[in-house]
Specification:
By secondary structure, this protein is an alpha/beta fold. Helix content is 38%, strand content 8%. It has a seven-stranded parallel β-sheet. Strand 1, helix 4 and strand 2 form a beta-alpha-beta unit. Helix 4 packs parallel to helix 5 and helix 5 packs parallel to helix 6.
């Protein structure tokens, strides 16, 4: 019997030691897991701390977007006010239950925006200002350009990433109590194969990309500049190709407005030096602007005076018809001295900044003056297309 008691005591001690070892191993494993998770979250923020900087396909993510010359007083377009890929959501961002979608939009336009516009915390001009504190041009460029809100372009066809990129911008704007200006720019056959060629491989892929884009809008107010030049610069397409593109734009308008109850979606209205109001309105109607949008945008990346664009936009809206709430937004980023001579579209000399961005224009049916093309981003002559050039920015700021 004593031997039995000894064996029992020995077995009991062994069980206690084993339990202690297992407890230590569990604590160590937990520490390792926590450290690994923290490292992943930190790495995600380091990699994608800013939103999508637009790119021409198939350039690397951080390359600037080239300009888009268009006919008749060409409209060099894409600005690239700064979007970079957004970080993947951390575990705390993942809902425990299925998210509740925002209420669906009726067909009536959303209320016109009446709030301050969002300035994204990173852009090419801000990068330059931070990197050149002693440059004598810096105070002028910083105070007159870098401090102004500007559009954020999304120019890469990047399924699986675009929703997060858009969401990063809209959440940042909502936290600041401001309205973001978002530019989806991935239509197939973009720029008719010109300097800014690229976009989605086909319309089915584009439709899917837009659906993902819409997922990032959220319930806050937003301004969406839907595909610059997609309507005004569509004559290069066949009749069937143009009809298919317009049908896709109409679908995009419906999807964006349904996903963002307070988002206003504006369709491509060209500019006052291009198509007649009647021709542009007919194309806009075919693309669903009167039924699936909230208005039109004009003068993107161009130079026509605000007064000319205001009159033109109203003429297009009158010819377009549709709900009384349809409005227009005008790109005023570089139109302070009006348009240059015909054919001079590439960083033309003698231009100047236009009216600062605002949603309070004091003009009937003009919802906002915006800086869609960020001043100082080259059309391809003062620097590489889409790159920020301080010489050009300073000339615009002092023009």
């Amino acid at each position: 019997m004593p031997g039995t008691r000894v064996r029992r005591r020995t077995a009991h001690r062994e069980r206690r030691r084993a339990a202690h070892r297992h407890a230590l191993l569990a604590v160590a494993s937990a520490v390792v897991a926590i450290g690994a998770t923290a490292g992943l979250i930190d790495a995600g923020h380091q990699e994608g701390r800013d939103t999508a900087r637009p790119e021409p396909s198939p350039s690397p993510v951080f390359q600037p977007l080239p300009a888009v010359p268009t006919p008749r007083q060409a409209a060099p377009a894409p600005s690239a006010a700064s979007a970079r890929p957004a970080p993947a959501p951390s575990p705390t961002d993942t809902p425990s239950a299925a998210p509740v979608p925002p209420p669906a939009r009726t067909t009536a336009p959303a209320p016109a925006p009446r709030s301050r516009l969002f300035r994204h915390p990173r852009s090419q001009v801000l990068d330059w200002v931070r990197a050149h504190p002693d440059d004598p041009r810096r105070p002028v460029i910083e105070s007159r350009i870098a401090t102004q809100p500007a559009a954020v372009w999304f120019a890469a066809h990047n399924p699986g990433e675009i929703a997060g990129q858009v969401r990063e911008v809209t959440r940042g704007a909502a936290a600041a109590g401001r309205i973001p200006v978002l530019v989806p720019y991935a239509i197939p056959d973009r720029d008719c194969g010109g300097a800014s060629k690229g976009g989605a491989p086909d319309l089915a892929a584009y439709d899917a990309w837009i659906r993902e884009f819409a997922q990032g809008l959220g319930a806050g107010a937003a301004i969406v500049i839907l595909e610059p030049d997609a309507i005004a610069l569509s004559d290069c397409l066949s009749a069937s190709g143009r009809a298919a593109r317009f049908a896709s734009l109409a679908r995009a308008g419906r999807v964006l407005r349904a996903a963002g109850p307070r988002a206003r979606v504006y369709f491509d209205g060209g500019h006052s030096g291009w198509h007649t109001p009647e021709k542009q309105a007919a194309a806009l109607r075919a693309a669903g602007a009167a039924t699936d949008g909230d208005g039109i945008f004009t003068n993107v990346s161009n130079f026509h005076r605000t007064a000319d664009e205001t009159a033109y936009a109203r003429a297009v809206l009158a010819a377009l018809g549709g709900p009384a709430g349809l409005g227009a937004v005008i790109d005023t980023s570089r139109n302070g001295n009006g348009a240059p001579a015909a054919g001079q579209w590439c960083d033309p000399a003698g231009r100047a900044l236009g009216r600062t961005p605002t949603t309070r224009t004091g003009e009937a049916r003009i919802d906002a003056y915006l800086w869609v093309k960020l001043p100082g981003e080259s059309d391809g002559c003062s620097g590489a297309a889409g790159s920020f050039t301080p010489e050009y920015a300073y000339a615009l700021a002092t023009g």
